[in-house]
């Protein structure tokens, strides 16, 4: 199967996305990192993709854990519990597994907050619109899990205080974290970019996303590392 960056839909979508990224950086935003999307086997099959695709994160995306968000301007909000991978070294395309593992400086819990305002069927359109990215919540980073060491970690998702999902296999839905970092570096290299030291990658949902419909609190506990939380309101906040 061809590499995902050879897919004409991905080529067109990524070129449009990177033009948007460059425009926003020139307007004063700072590069934060990247998000992986559509990495679950069912999603790749539905979109006829050979591997996950990526979107960008800037310094406008982060919110603090515990933030309260109004849903008044959102169309179809979704919260995804994810693992944040902190990159400690520049990683060019073509890096091997050991080089990739050595570039992973820390892990941490994260939420991605996206607004799925249109059907997820047109790969080019989804990429050009940065895969519906709105915000990200990053928990404390833990250097003891450098190299993508996941031993002893498990995830729990709570909705209004009630556990709705848990997993002890944090790579079951996303694929192996080392491979994902390697993939991001290779995909960026295909479009003339480099995965940089200091950037963060949010690696895709480790449990089923939460489609937010009412006022509620969602918590992702990456035990024993830490947690992130967000509360949604139907009314304007502040």
Write up what this structure looks like.
The protein is an alpha+beta fold and 238 residues long. It has helices spanning 8-26, 41-47, 97-103, 123-128, 177-190; strands spanning 31-37, 53-58, 62-63, 67-70, 77-87, 104-115, 133-138, 154-159, 162-167, 200-205, 210-211, 216-223, 226-233. The protein has one domain: Fumarylacetoacetase-like, C-terminal domain (Fumarylacetoacetate hydrolase, domain 2, Alpha-Beta Complex). Helix content is 22%, strand content 35%. Strands 1, 2, 3, 5, 6, 7, 10 and 11 form an 8-stranded mixed beta sheet that branches. The protein has a 5-stranded mixed beta sheet with strand order 4-13-12-8-9, with no helix packed on it. The chain is globular and about 45 Å long. The model has no long low-confidence stretch (mean pLDDT 94).
Annotation keywords:
alpha+beta, Fumarylacetoacetate hydrolase, domain 2, eight-stranded mixed β-sheet, five-stranded mixed β-sheet, 5 helices, 22% helix, globular
> Level of helix content?
10-25%
Radius of gyration: 17 Å
* CATH fold field value: Fumarylacetoacetate hydrolase, domain 2
Number of domains: 1
Residue stretches low in confidence (pLDDT < 50, at least 5 long) are none
CATH hierarchy class name: Alpha Beta
Largest sheet: 8 strands, mixed
Report how far the terminal alpha carbons are from each other. 50 Å
Instruction: Specify the CATH homologous superfamily.
Output: Fumarylacetoacetase-like, C-terminal domain
- The run of helices and strands is HEHEEEEHEHEEEHEEEE
């Amino acid at each position: 199967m061809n590499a995902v960056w050879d897919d004409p839909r991905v080529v067109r979508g990524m070129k449009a996305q990177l033009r948007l990224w460059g425009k926003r950086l020139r307007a004063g935003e700072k590069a934060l990192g990247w998000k992986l999307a559509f990495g679950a086997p069912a999603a790749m099959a539905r979109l006829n993709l050979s591997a996950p695709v990526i979107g960008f994160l800037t310094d406008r995306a982060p919110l603090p854990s515990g933030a309260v968000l109004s849903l008044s301007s959102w169309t179809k909000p979704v919260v995804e519990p994810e693992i944040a991978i902190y990159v400690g070294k520049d990683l060019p395309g073509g890096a091997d597994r050991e080089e990739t593992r050595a570039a992973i400086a820390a892990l941490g819990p994260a939420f991605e907050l996206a607004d799925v305002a249109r059907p997820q069927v047109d790969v080019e359109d989804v990429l050009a619109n940065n895969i519906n990215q709105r915000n990200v919540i990053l928990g404390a980073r833990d250097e003891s899990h450098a190299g993508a060491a996941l031993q002893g970690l498990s995830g729990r998702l709570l909705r209004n205080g009630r556990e709705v999902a848990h997993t002890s296999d944090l790579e079951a839905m996303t694929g192996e974290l080392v491979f994902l970092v390697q993939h991001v570096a290779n995909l960026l290299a295909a479009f003339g970019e480099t995965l940089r030291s200091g950037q963060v990658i949010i690696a895709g949902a480790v449990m089923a996303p939460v489609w937010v419909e009412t006022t509620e609190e969602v918590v992702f506990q990456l035990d024993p590392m830490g947690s992130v939380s967000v509360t949604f309101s139907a009314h304007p906040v502040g």
